[in-house]
Amino acid sequence: MAQVRPMRADARRNRERLLAVAVEAFAEHGEGASLDDIARRAGVGAGTLYRHFPTRQALLEAAYLERLEAIAARADVIAAARPAGAALVAWLDELAVGMLQVRGLKALLGTAVTGGGPACGDCVRGAATRLVRA
């Protein structure tokens, strides 16, 4: 079994800066924001960006995963307070509001749910499945 080495402190800081700048850039320019500009604004080279996030999709997913997890977690809260059908509709409404408020989230969800980013897709599919089965 291969040992997973912990990320160095400087690499962790670079990753965190890249994510913070990516969220800003995607909010400003949508999912088509320049990756080179994101790297420059984060104070790192393009190679560092691609080492952490090999594709635009990987960066989008990492940048928005926390937001999607929060929306997905609302499914359980809503399900506990409403009948099944009403809970699904209320959660889908919250998901739609999130997509309108966060530029780039709609594009990410479109690819994640149809087989793109596994973490985001699993997060949203899992919440929807729990509500449908409730």
Can you describe this structure?
This is Helix-turn-helix transcriptional regulator. One of its GO terms (molecular function) is DNA-binding transcription factor activity. Keywords: DNA-binding, Transcription, Transcription regulation. The mean pLDDT is 87. The relative contact order is 0.13. The protein has 7 helices and no strands. Helices cover 78% and strands 0% of the residues. The protein has a single domain (9-133), classed as Tetracycline Repressor, domain 2. It is an all-alpha fold and 134 residues long.
Strand residues, percent: under 5%
| Shape type | elongated
CATH topology: Tetracycline Repressor, domain 2
Can you identify the CATH superfamily?
Answer: Tetracycline Repressor, domain 2
Distance linking N and C termini: 39 Å
Q: Which structural class do you get from the secondary structure elements?
A: mainly alpha
Average pLDDT, all residues: 87
Order of helices and strands: HHHHHHH
Could you say how many structural domains there are in total? 1
State Rg: 17 Å
Q: Quick one: how many beta strands?
A: 0
Bin the helical content. Answer: over 70%
Low-pLDDT segments, ≥5 res: none
Briefly say what this structure is:
By secondary structure, the chain is mainly α.
Search tags:
single chain; 134 residues; mainly alpha; Tetracycline Repressor, domain 2; elongated
Secondary structure layout:
Elements: H1 9-29, H2 35-42, H3 46-52, H4 56-81, H5 84-101, H6 105-113, H7 118-133
Helix pairs in contact: 1-2, 1-4, 4-5, 4-7, 5-7, 6-7
